[in-house]
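Repro:
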Amino acid sequence: MAITALKKYQKLESSGLWRENAKGQRREVIANLGATSLILSDPKCEVALTHWSLPAVKRLNPGEMPALYAPDASDGETLEIDDNEMISALETVNAAIQATRPHRGRLRNTLLGAVAVGILAIGVFWLPNALVEHTASFVPRTTRQDIGNEALADLTRLTGQPCDSKSGKAALAKLSRRLFGPDGGVELVVVRTGLTMAQALPGRLVVLPESLLAERDGPETIAGFALAARIAAELNDPMLHLLQYAGMSATFRLLTTGNLPEAAVRGYAETLINSEQQQPSDDTLLARFEAAGLATTPYATMRDPSGATTAGLIEADPFSNVIPPALLPDGDWVSLQDICTN
């Protein structure tokens, strides 16, 4: 019953008013119901403020509204919730947990049942893929950016530091805004060696090889790889791949504390580079490239010079007979080509 309750309400969230202690002021939070805990986060920056173990959550005012909850042994810490669905979820989970606790005369059977429930819970919730997917769905954007930067730092062992000429970085930022909009928040990075294709990292970070700039007439090729990498990241969250590498222990720590162990990403670069990339479908790429005002042919011919796997992108190029809007002024394109020149 506890497992059914948790599975039913996975990813449920609501707003609430949290008081850290008896003397503290109430503040608005977002309450997320996880597999084993109630996570309270700041709605402005999505940073986790505290985690309440589900078995410890107690309702202080049964039958009254708004519902008032507190963790066991709290020093006046409380949470007010008036969302009926979240209240129902917490009541259901609490009832399921209470049903597994010892009752007089049934201790032995209860212990055996608890062991069985624990084993089943591990099988349902904490299989590697389930734990990774569950954790990735709760990681806030700021934490994703931090983890993406850690992965980039590990990648630079193989690629060297990102190219950073001032005018080149300005042109790269302008290209990102052109492709993803002023509020897209996608950071593009160019590195000298170690990559042959673009790599998407958590935190809307895309790493591009300098080779995509060499001997090109314009930025269409590197822009195409940047856009394709972001599309692939939207379809297959790069956080999932990274957490699978980090392992269950590190993933569980991220879920429960909001922090990934420092060593969790160490050595990830080799796995990232050697992993086979899943390409979006031609229909998806064609639609997104057309919406961005970007021809598909330069990207397709670079991705597969033989054309065997990208013929559809070349034949259906939305700008094969039309000149698309310019991606960058000529001066910015020259600066971008020289981004790795110090």
